[in-house]
Amino acid sequence: MHNLIIMGPPGAGKGTQSEKIVAAYNIPHISTGDMFREAISKKTELGTKAESYIKSGALVPDEITIGLVKERLSMDDCKNGYLLDGFPRTILQAEALRDLTKEIGREVTLVINLVCDYESLAGRISQRRVCPKCGASYHLVTKKPEVEGICDNCKTPLIQREDDTMEALKTRLNAYEMKTKPLIEFYEKENLIKNIDGLQSIDDVFSDIKKALEGK
Ligand code: ADP
Ligand code: ADP
Ligand code: ZN
To answer: Among 62, 79, 115, 215, which one is most buried in terms of CB atoms within 10 A?
Structure first.
């Protein structure tokens, strides 16, 4: 069973690797960032609540985020596995996740931690372009779409995320450092973490992830 979490600082490659993992293992991709962005573009109540936090690079409050994931993980399509991308991001979220997955018999089996140094993240973030429709992410140099400015999957024009500015990145890295990094120790204690070198090429990172999953 692959009940997975992928974690790492902003720009580490979580979204990029998630696309490959869910295609190879046929499990749903649960990205809280994508869920929030969709809610914002549809102007739902959740979107209205989350928008200002995301724009500035701050974390959305735990109670909003936990409720969202709880509902999603309980859905039927998660019964044969799932991939959580960008959740949990705080100890409180990790504890809530541990309790709720236990309750529904869907406990996490592996945490993939993409390790990157901070210097490389600015270049990845500033040159990232994303598809507003399907969430796919591209890079102006390392992962160009087949047609410039257009999503390979759904042909939608690519955009730059509003929080992919150097100012918001500073806030996001700070949030990562203060609130999310402690999760590494949390999952080390649970013997669930697998550290993977995120500075390798996209294909080499994925090959390491596959090896880690085959051992499971
Ligand atoms: P990144 O590419 O920086 O890792 P994500 O797409 O995962 O970004 O998240 C974008 C933003 O959405 C975050 O900066 C934060 O504001 C919000 N967000 C996403 N997931 C969470 C979470 N688990 N807890 C709180 N805020 C979240
Ligand atoms: P995250 O979801 O962790 O924020 P993304 O998967 O969106 O990160 O990747 C951030 C940017 O870096 C994107 O532009 C992506 O195309 C690019 N990228 C991802 N992985 C690699 C890699 N291994 N080598 C070079 N560029 C990468
Ligand atoms: Zn697309």
So the answer is: 62
Query: Residue 80 belongs to what domain range?
Result: 2-116+174-213
Whether residue 144 lies inside any domain: the answer is: no
* pLDDT beneath 70, residues of the chain: 216
| Residues 6 or more apart in contact with residue 21 via CB below 8 angstroms | 4, 6, 27, 29, 83, 206, 209, 213
pLDDT at residue 203, rounded to an integer: 97
Say if 73 falls within a structural domain.
yes
pTM here is 0.96
What is the CATH classification number for the domain harbouring 107? 3.40.50.300
- Domain count along the chain: 1
